[in-house]
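Issue 218. Parser rejects a valid record. Input:
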Amino acid sequence: MNRRYRKTIIAGNWKMNKTATEGKVLLDEIKASVGKAKWCEIVACVPAVDIPMAVKALKDSRIAVGAQNLHYEPSGAYTGEISASMLKDLGVKYVIIGHSERRQYFGETDVTVNKKVHAALEAGLHPIVCVGESLEQREMGITNDLISVQVKSAICGVPADKIRRIVFAYEPIWAIGTGKTATSEQANEVCEHIRTIIRKQFGARTARAVTIQYGGSMNAKNAHDLLAQPDVDGGLIGGASLKSADFVTIVNAANQE
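Output the parser choked on:
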């Protein structure tokens, strides 16, 4: 982390877990435990049906609400989809885009990720753009090549003055929900590579200001070491975000120099 230049963000991705009733209990526990926690931004990315509850429950706290997906069109005949303006109107601040599970199960592509990034920025949301490689791709030695394509595709056409509003999350597919975690050094190497891509395209000042998270089984035990890395600016937390004690431990791990 480097709080001198950029914001540290700890975001919980609940995925398809927690009813609104269950979610309120969890949010109340987290809210009571993190206090003011001024050292980082805290985000709860909840299922769409939980968003109104989350906005209400977190109204007087420092915890922001995030969504897990959106459609790139502003409106239309897209049954079951949710637009950026709908999320913004509810009080959502962040939205996850391009998670590997969306790519694997729902046909998300680099092209649709780019369209969604533009839609989110246009509505005033902060996209959390996920990138990452499979185990086979890592073993082939093409991690950086793949990450370069994903990052460049995601930000294609985005003006320089909006890049700082994008959060990137490096999530190696082989570490998501498997209990496996990239070493601190492996995580930092890829986060540093993402920053290099941004620096080459938009300059050093912009690259220094962009928040780059690590996802992929960050938990209460490994968070401190991962967050101690210079280019790891937070975490996109999956399973551990569903347990208030674990999530709060990760938030507290961000309180280090």
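Fixed in the parser; the record now loads. The longest helix spans residues 184-202.
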